[in-house]
């Protein structure tokens, strides 16, 4: 092969002796000579001048030597990358999520994964929960982060809990409840609840609605929003309240909004990861092993 001739050339340039090179490479001297002859013929230049004690590099040989080292390095990198593909240590892993808050708490886990498997390229894709559910079911993405009810309704999927994200009440500054240490659902019975519609985010809407329905309360739900930042702005100007998770509290808290924990049994989002049972990408299992080890749980799927 061409790469073998390159290696023979590099060895001969080091030892400058056909016999010594043959011994070092466990080849016959005639095989070394043949490799160099074929390489010179292919390149169309003479690489060595024979001497009584061995040989020396020609001007062309000296010019070709650094290129030879580069060619060998490229070939070795390609070989290593291809050899890792069957085990999943190289390749691509595509990850979908409905909101960045579902992956932000796992940044340290992702850092550990890319450090351990640097040849695996990660692709993060932000879609609506409905779109993420469809894409993971259609094998368009490898992993999907989201709620169980939003993802596992599709056939052929596995799902594992990753973390709970507690729900907080976001109130405008000066609200009558702002001085409380915690809030219950009953305390919000007469409030306007600003929330994205079920069409935009069915999982989020259903969780919030069921918190009230379990207590026999049917609050006014203002759903004239297509994203949460608009909801927060309405709260800031004193037009209603909203319920968002602890992750939103970390990243979107402002001075004119008061945030208080919601003390209810089901006041949290059960966030997890889903994947297709028949996904053939070996990087999936590698990442799941890292994820569940990071979370201190097993990889047994629901």
In short:
By secondary structure, this protein is an alpha/beta fold. Helix content is 42%, strand content 22%.
User: Which fold name is given in CATH as the topology of the largest domain?
Assistant: D-Maltodextrin-Binding Protein, domain 2
Helix content: 40-55%
Mean pLDDT: 85
Strand content: 15-25%
C-alpha end-to-end distance? 51 Å
Judging from the principal axes of the Cα atoms, what is the shape? rod-shaped
Largest sheet: 9 strands, mixed
Ranges with pLDDT <50 over ≥5 residues?
Answer: 298-302
What does this molecule look like?
The protein is built from 11 helices and 11 strands. With about 300 residues, it is an alpha/beta fold. It has 3 domains: about 1-85, Arc Repressor Mutant, subunit A; about 90-160 and about 270-295, D-Maltodextrin-Binding Protein, domain 2 (3-Layer(aba) Sandwich); about 165-270, Periplasmic binding protein-like II (D-Maltodextrin-Binding Protein, domain 2), CATH 3.40.190. The strands form 2 sheets. Strands 3, 4, 5, 6, 7, 8, 9, 10 and 11 form a 9-stranded mixed beta sheet that branches. A hairpin with a 4-residue loop joins strand 1 (about 50) and strand 2. Helix 1 crosses helix 3, helix 2 crosses helix 3 (about 30-45) and helix 5 crosses helix 11 (about 280-295). The protein is rod-shaped, with a radius of gyration of 31 Å.
């Amino acid at each position: 092969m061409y790469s073998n001739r390159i290696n023979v050339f590099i060895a001969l340039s080091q030892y400058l002796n056909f016999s010594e090179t043959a011994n070092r490479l466990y080849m016959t001297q005639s095989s070394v000579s043949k490799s160099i002859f074929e390489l010179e013929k292919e390149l169309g230049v003479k690489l060595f001048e024979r001497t009584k004690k061995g040989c020396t590099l020609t001007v062309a040989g000296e010019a070709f030597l650094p290129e030879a080292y580069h060619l060998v390095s490229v070939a070795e990198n390609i070989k290593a990358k291809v050899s890792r593909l069957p085990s999943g240590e190289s390749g691509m892993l595509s990850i979908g999520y409905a909101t960045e808050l579902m992956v932000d708490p796992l940044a340290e886990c992702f850092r550990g994964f890319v450090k351990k498997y640097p040849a695996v390229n990660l692709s993060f894709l932000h879609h609506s929960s409905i779109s993420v559910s469809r894409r993971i079911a259609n094998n368009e993405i490898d992993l999907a982060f989201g709620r169980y009810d939003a993802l596992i309704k599709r056939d052929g999927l596995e799902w594992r809990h990753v973390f709970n994200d507690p729900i907080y009440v976001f109130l405008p500054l000066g609200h009558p409840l702002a001085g409380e240490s915690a809030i219950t659902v009953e305390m919000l019975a007469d409030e306007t609840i600003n929330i994205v519609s079920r069409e935009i985010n069915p999982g989020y809407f259903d969780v919030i609605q069921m918190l009230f329905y379990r207590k026999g309360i049917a609050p006014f739900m203002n759903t004239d929003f297509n994203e949460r930042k608009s909801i927060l702005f309405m709260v800031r100007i004193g037009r209603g309240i909203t319920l968002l998770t602890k992750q939103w509290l970390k990243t979107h808290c402002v001075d004119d909004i008061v945030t208080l924990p919601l003390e209810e049994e089901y006041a949290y989002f059960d966030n997890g990861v889903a994947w297709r049972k028949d996904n053939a990408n070996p990087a999936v299992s590698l990442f799941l092993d890292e994820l569940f080890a990071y979370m201190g749980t097993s990889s047994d799927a629901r």
